Amino acid sequence: MMRACTGAPGMLLAVVLWAVMSVTGIHDGPPAIAESGGTLLPAPGSWGLHPALSCLLGMMLAAGCAIALWLLNKTFNFLSGPGAIFSAIFLIACGATPDMSDSLSPGLIVAAVALWGTCLLFGLYGRRRATSQCLLLFSLLSWGSMVQQACLMLAPVFLAGLVLLRVGRPREFMASLIGLVTPYWIVLGLGIASPGELNFSAPRMIAYLEGDPSRFVWTIISAGVTTFIFVMLVLYNSLHTLSAGVKMRACLSFVNLLGGGCIAWMLFDCCDFTAYFATLYMCMGLVVTRTFELSRSPRAWVLPACIAATYIILYCLHD
User: Fold this and answer.
1) What pLDDT sits at residue 27?
2) How far is it, in rounded angstroms, from Cα 264 to Cα 266?
3) Residue 285 contacts residue 277 (beta carbons within 8 Å)
4) What whole-number percentage of the chain has pLDDT above 70?
5) Nearest to residue 63, comparing CAs of 51, 74, 55?
6) Residue 63 DSSP label
7) Which residues lie across from 33 on neighbouring strands?
8) 177 against 49, higher pLDDT
9) CB 276, CB 266: distance < 8 Å
10) Within 13 Å of residue 42, how many CA atoms lie on the same side as its CB?
11) Among the listed residues 265, 285, 240, the one whose alpha carbon sits nearest the alpha carbon of residue 93
12) DSSP codes of every residue in 220-249
């Protein structure tokens, strides 16, 4: 049973369930919560995409993130548990959440940027000179913010990540700040946009309901369930922190920090509430895998199976 749930059969089942939930979740109406979009482009829901095309693009992006998440761990080897667990949980959670992988959602865009940034960050561990890489990393966040402003909100998390990955020196911090400014300097300098066309909106703690109220309610419930699971497992895993190597501990600490940052911004940036979902799902999947590998029980598969079942039940109830 362990091999079936955490190996290829379990991953295949997760992909099928995710695809079914995503396709059956297609709808013509607006998202449950109004999206604020990026500093240069409006939210994906305002791009005029056909619902089927939007769903296809969203599914492709979600699948790409799941594969990239597996490659991230394969490259840096910070988790020894089965890669099928975190990718499967990420996909099922996305499929079960309204307006996530059933459309090209801001959450998936932010997750793709955050995942790429995490890959760059992990590659910096212990380097003596990392200014060019820091410039690239924060330029990526800045370019992403033009499509979805939530990418910019994650910059403080990645700045703290520089410290965790032992590259938090003044020179690297200065390169990071230059990286944040450079994309906007290019856009303004080339005349692509004028300063008045850039839409920088301050985080607001009030969300505006646009779509079906029931989708809004289940979105809030999904957020609460995810936050509870993530926090409880991080607390459990923290009891076994010393069992990991130094680099592994630094990478896992950043995963915890990134997930915690998403939860904080979900509370204080309610207009972009759903933009942080997919990134939090990725962090939760990694945390669940860490809990799985710490368990010595032959029934350790029950935890990821129960979490996946919880999201499937939530989907069945709201649909």
Assistant:
1) 63
2) 5
3) no
4) 88
5) 55
6) H
7) 209
8) 177
9) yes
10) 6
11) 285
12) HHHHHHHHHHHHHHHHHHHTTGGGS-HHHH
CB atoms within 10 A of CB 262: 31
Is 177 buried (19+), middle (13-18) or exposed (0-12) by CB count in 10 A? middle
- Identify the burial level of 16 via C-beta atoms within 10 angstroms of its C-beta, where 0-12 means exposed, 13-18 middle and 19 or more buried: exposed
CA distance 113 to 185: 20
Query: Using an 8 Å Cβ cutoff, are 115 and 66 in contact?
Result: no
Helix (H, G, I), strand (E, B) or coil at 95: helix
CB 109 within 8 A of CB 44: yes
- Average pLDDT of the chain, as a whole number: 85
Q: Which residue type occupies 11?
A: M
What would the mean pLDDT of 259-286 be, rounded to a whole number? 89
pLDDT in tens, 301-312: 888 889 999 999
How far apart are the C-alpha atoms of 20 and 4, rounded to whole Å? 20
- In angstroms, the Cα distances linking 135 to 85, 124, 131, 175, 190 are 33, 12, 6, 5, 20
The mean pLDDT of 84-88, rounded to a whole number, is 86
213-238 helix and 83-96 helix, angle to the nearest 10 degrees = 160
Q: How far apart are CA 275 and CA 114, in angstroms?
A: 11
H helices of 47-199, in order, are 51-76, 83-96, 106-122, 131-145, 150-153, 155-164, 170-189
Q: 21-50 pLDDT, tens per residue?
A: 888 876 655 565 666 778 888 888 778 788
CB 223 within 8 A of CB 266: yes
Quick: pLDDT tens for 216-227. Answer: 777 788 889 999
How do residues 153-164 score in pLDDT, each as one tens digit?
Answer: 999 999 999 999
Write phi, then psi, for 33 (nearest 5 degrees).
Answer: -120, 135
How far apart are alpha carbons 185 and 208 in whole angstroms?
A: 32
d(CA 51, CA 68): 25
